[in-house]
Amino acid sequence: MLEDRTTAAPDTSWPAAYPQGYAVVDVETTGLARDDRIISAAVYRLDGRGEVEDHWYTMVNPERDPGPVWIHGLTSEMLEGAPLFGDIAEEFAERLDGRVLVAHNAVFDWSMIAREYARADRRPPVKQRLCTIALSKELALPLPNHKLESLAAHFGVVQQRAHHALDDARVLAEAFRPSLHTAASRNVRLPLLECRPLTEWSAAPLIGRQSSGGYGAGSWRPSRKRPACPYPNPGRYEAGKPLRQGMRVAFSGDTSVDRELLEDRATEAGLHVATSLSRLTSLLVTNDPDSGTSKVVKARQFGTPVIDEAAFGQLLRDVEPASGE
Fold first, then answer.
1. Closest by alpha carbon to 91, among 170, 37, 23?
2. Residue 271 in contact with residue 229, Cβ under 8 Å?
């Protein structure tokens, strides 16, 4: 259970539009790609004021190699007798039902959960998510970076087992509660995003994967059109400076992190994800700048700045707000 609970604000000061309940979630996975699997999951259910109601944890047999054991500590032997995701899908759904999913870098946890439910031919009963990275930015918390350990340290939360789903969920729940109360005291609008389920899942590989990021083995396709970026384009990215909301970012070639996940991260950071490259494009992200793809060729013609995926990931951690924000 959580300690040092923050006293709930009076009803008169609590924003009426805030959700009535939250599910703080953490999942550990075999990797970051679209065909990777969940190997453990934890949920802390919180009421509308962020107080803990209960918590739940399970390991999950991924039916494949567990991936980076040195990170999550779960070996094939430990997972061999664990339930399959289909076996825990109903109980997991009960934990999420009617609540806002809260996670640190929520687009990742949601993507992994949505894919697992799509494989099981089911839909998770969660409509909205809240990313604690986005909330900490909204509150302008003085953090050195947006790692979970930094958020925990800011609120004096002690992390006992990093990359263990149950402890990560506990730490996040403890850090989320004071964040929520701070937001309520300032009447800050919570950065809620819609959780759209996947409409297609295919475990069969597709032939002729396109260099621009076609669907491969274990492909999935989100049932949505990406929303328009609400910020004006501030121009091109300049080396050594941070990204700014509204910048137009294009991707080319294969990425180590699932392309859709990268695009969602960029969108949540306030960037405009462009499907093509033009003179207005602020930045091209590619791991192969010497390739002959149409986007790389146009980037050379237009003088568009080019960086690799790793550098882009670093820049995403601290995107400057749009002018006037």
1. 23
2. yes
pLDDT digits (tens, 9 = 90+) for 264-316: 889 888 999 998 999 999 999 988 888 778 899 999 999 999 998 888 988 98
Per DSSP, what are the bridge partners of residue 26? Answer: 42
**Which residue, 139, 232, 222, 121, is CA-closest to 185?**
139
Q: Does an H or E element contain 24, and which?
A: strand 21-29
Sketch out the chain's domains with CATH numbers: 21-197 (3.30.420.10), 225-316 (3.40.50.10190)
The pairs formed by 121-126 with CB atoms below 8 angstroms and a separation of 24 or more are 121/201, 122/89, 122/93, 123/197, 124/92, 124/93, 124/96, 124/195, 124/197, 125/93, 125/96, 125/97, 125/98, 126/23, 126/96, 126/97, 126/99, 126/100, 126/101, 126/195
pLDDT value for 201: 53
Residues 6+ apart with CB under 8 A from 77: none
Instruction: Please name the amino acid found at residue 131.
Output: C
DSSP 244: B
Instruction: Please name the amino acid found at residue 276.
Output: S
d(CA 196, CA 202): 18
Name every residue whose Cβ is closer than 8 Å to that of residue 89 and which is 6 or more positions away in sequence.
116, 117, 120, 122
Q: Do the beta carbons of residue 136 and residue 151 sit within 8 Å?
A: yes
| Chain segment 58-104, per-residue pLDDT in tens | 999 999 999 889 889 999 999 999 999 999 999 999 999 999 999 99
* CB-CB contact of 313 with 257 (8 Å): yes
**Encoded tokens for 74:** 């779960």
Rg (CA), the chain: 20
